[in-house]
Amino acid sequence: MAKTLVIVSHPDIERSVVNKRWVQELEQYPEEFTVHELYREYPDGKIDVAAEQRLVEKHENIVLQFPVYWFNCTPLLKQWFDDVLAFGWAYGPGGDAFRGRNLGIAVSFGSPEGSYAHDGAVGYTVAETLRPFELTANYIQANYQPVFRFHGPDSNVAPSAEQLAALAQNAADYVEHLRKYGR
C-alpha cells in the first residue's frame, strides 16, 4: 500500500473536536500516513510552493482534510490550491503532477447530515456542495475518491458523550476509508 499524504487545514486545530480527533487517529499509523498541517507549517500564511510540490510528488494518494466553512474550504487551503496547483505543474502543458494520483477529501460539518438534502436547511446535498473539489480533481487529472465526512458537533457547543463516541468510531472508520482508497 502506498503512503497517503493527508493535508490538514484547520485554523485552530487545538480547539477542534473532529479534525483534531482525526489527526490523533492518523498519527497512530506513521508508516501509512503523512500528516501535514498547513496552519502549523505556515502560521504566517506564506506557503513554500516548491516544498509543497515535492511533498505531493512523494505520495500517490493525497487527502485534503478540513472543516467546511461557509460551504468551502479554509482560507489557507484555498491559498494552497491557488499557489501550489501551478500551471505547468498541476495543469496545462507539462502539468501532470496529479495524473494518476488519488485525491480525496475528508470534511467535517457543524450541522446535522439532514441539513445537506434538497429539503434540508442547506438545500443541497454534500456532493453538490463539494462539487468544486471534484471539478478541481478532474481538471488536474487526479482520481477523485469518495468523500469522507462527519456531521456535528457544532463547534460552538460542547459535544455530548454520544457525539464523542460516534466520533471515536468515525475516526477508526476514517483510517479504514483511507486504507481502502489508498491501495
Topology:
Elements: E1 4-8, H1 18-26, E2 33-37, H2 38-41, H3 49-57, E3 61-67, H4 75-84, E4 102-109, H5 126-129, H6 131-139, E5 143-144, E6 148-151, H7 161-181
Parallel strand pairs: 1-2, 1-3, 3-4, 4-5, 4-6
Helix pairs in contact: 1-7
Pfam family, one: Flavodoxin_2
Domain Flavodoxin-like fold: 3-172
GO molecular function, one term: NAD(P)H dehydrogenase (quinone) activity
Q: Care to describe what's here?
A:
InterPro entries: Flavodoxin_fold (IPR003680), Flavoprotein-like_sf (IPR029039), KefG/KefF (IPR046980). Keywords: Oxidoreductase. Residues 3-172 form the Flavodoxin-like fold domain. The protein has a single domain (4-180), classed as Rossmann fold, CATH 3.40.50.360. Strands 1, 2, 3, 4, 5 and 6 form a six-stranded parallel sheet that branches. The chain has helices at 18-26, 38-41, 49-57, 75-84, 126-129, 131-139, 161-181, and strands at 4-8, 33-37, 61-67, 102-109, 143-144, 148-151. It has seven helices and six strands. The N and C termini lie close together (5 Å). The mean pLDDT is 94. It is globular, with a radius of gyration of 16 Å. α1 crosses α7 (161-181). The protein has 183 residues and is α/β, with parallel strands linked by helices. It is 36% helix and 17% strand.
